[in-house]
Design a protein that fits this description.
Radius of gyration: 16 Å
Structural class: alpha/beta
Largest sheet: 5 strands, parallel
Strand order of the largest sheet: 3-2-1-4-5
Number of strands: 5
Strand content: 15-25%
Helix content: 40-55%
Distance between the termini: 22 Å
Length: 147
């Protein structure tokens, strides 16, 4: 096992997934990629827009929003490093969470995807679907869902 992709939304189940993935990465000396997928940032945050204008930032509010998420994800990366994971990287994707997780796993040649479960229950999961269910059903590598 060389690469482990961890889907992180900073919920408690996803943080437990980070902990478990870090333990696995330590055991196998694997690279750990933490990925957060955010919805399309088409409608900018007024606060971020104002900040971009004040600071004369030309990249625009969408880039700032992605960078703010990347900074928050870096803190989660430190959590994984504290558990002993050595090679930890972070990435932020914009789009549908399940699609971005699958695409990142494929392009990064992940050997394992680790993600948390929201715990909606069987009925709600059947009616609403979930990111974990989509990833488990479509992934070309093993998926570990942490409750």
């Amino acid at each position: 096992m060389k690469r482990i992709l961890v889907a992180v939304d900073r919920s408690e189940p996803s943080l437990r997934a980070v902990d478990m993935a870090a333990d696995i990465a330590v055991k196998y000396g694997a690279e750990l990629l933490l990925l957060t997928a955010i919805p399309d940032v088409g409608l900018p945050d007024p606060g971020i827009e104002a900040y971009a204008r004040i600071e004369h930032i030309k990249d625009g509010p969408a880039a700032l929003q992605v960078e703010s998420v990347r900074d928050a994800l870096s803190e989660v990366g430190e959590r994984a490093k504290a558990k002993g994971a050595r090679n930890v990287s972070v990435d932020v994707a914009v789009g549908d969470a399940a699609e971005e997780i699958l695409a990142s796993a494929k392009s990064g040649q992940a050997d394992l995807i680790v993600m948390g479960s929201r715990g909606h229950g069987r009925l709600a999961g059947l009616l609403l679907g979930s990111v974990a269910q989509k990833v488990v059903g479509l992934a070309s590598c093993p998926v570990l869902v942490v409750h």
